[in-house]
């Protein structure tokens, strides 16, 4: 079956291993057989960075370089910029009039993000309503499949609620419901095992990380605090090193042997970390080298993004026309 796929990332920093294993590899695999668009979500990035817009604008091309470095082919996948698509903001306004504040407050993803960012009583309105904006992003491309982490499933559910309400107003199915596409690893923990991955917290490994940064990150990875001696039996659950081995090491049999040995006792954390580090160095080396060349050609990156955005303007305006027609607002067309 051929799907229309929309996915994307907030332009607030370099992409990291969580992005890579969570959806980037999947996007690369899908682009040969599916119609796929990737949205660089700079507007969404401003929802909690409006006070520091450079954090968003300064990372747009970094995200572009990350995409291309992992294998996204702009000849197969259309890459576009959220702020370059006026239809998305207008659709957000229409959708905002059919979604209640209480429904937004019940969204588990929003609740978790608000708690994680410690906004207190100063939640930006744009952040609070970003499920509506995300629904506009998805529906504007008539995407019926969206690669997401399991934490984003409530966002898909709310998008589909909006789709059904708009279709009821229109009296026909002008918008398309979507379904989540989960990767094998739905969420990768931070290296310290304590919080969500964040470059500002220093608990992640970016796709551009050099050899020393990878080594340092693996060395401080959380393991089993009770595994004090090599001879001690160890725990696998909650052990970040083994979580990363499961996600990245190509030899599943070897990883299983390591787990059994660790549980039994006689396998030290240092040896396991060495195996993981070697794996991550091999994984990131070609990505880092390709990315270094890409980021030095900003003109090329801008041209790809400009072309993709112009193509997406035409696509999203068609959906906007249908939604405006449903509300009886195409008076001047």
UniProtKB/TrEMBL annotation:
<dbReference type="GO" id="GO:0005524">
    <property type="term" value="F:ATP binding"/>
</dbReference>
<keyword id="KW-0030">Aminoacyl-tRNA synthetase</keyword>
<dbReference type="Pfam" id="PF00579">
    <property type="entry name" value="tRNA-synt_1b"/>
</dbReference>
<keyword id="KW-0547">Nucleotide-binding</keyword>
<keyword id="KW-0436">Ligase</keyword>
<dbReference type="GO" id="GO:0004830">
    <property type="term" value="F:tryptophan-tRNA ligase activity"/>
</dbReference>
<keyword id="KW-0648">Protein biosynthesis</keyword>
<dbReference type="GO" id="GO:0005829">
    <property type="term" value="C:cytosol"/>
</dbReference>
<keyword id="KW-0614">Plasmid</keyword>
<dbReference type="GO" id="GO:0006436">
    <property type="term" value="P:tryptophanyl-tRNA aminoacylation"/>
</dbReference>
<dbReference type="InterPro" id="IPR002306">
    <property type="entry name" value="Trp-tRNA-ligase"/>
</dbReference>
<dbReference type="InterPro" id="IPR002305">
    <property type="entry name" value="aa-tRNA-synth_Ic"/>
</dbReference>
<dbReference type="InterPro" id="IPR014729">
    <property type="entry name" value="Rossmann-like_a/b/a_fold"/>
</dbReference>
<dbReference type="InterPro" id="IPR050203">
    <property type="entry name" value="Trp-tRNA_synthetase"/>
</dbReference>
<keyword id="KW-0067">ATP-binding</keyword>
<comment type="similarity">
    <text>Belongs to the class-I aminoacyl-tRNA synthetase family.</text>
</comment>
<protein>
    <recommendedName>
        <fullName>Tryptophan--tRNA ligase</fullName>
        <ecNumber>6.1.1.2</ecNumber>
    </recommendedName>
</protein>
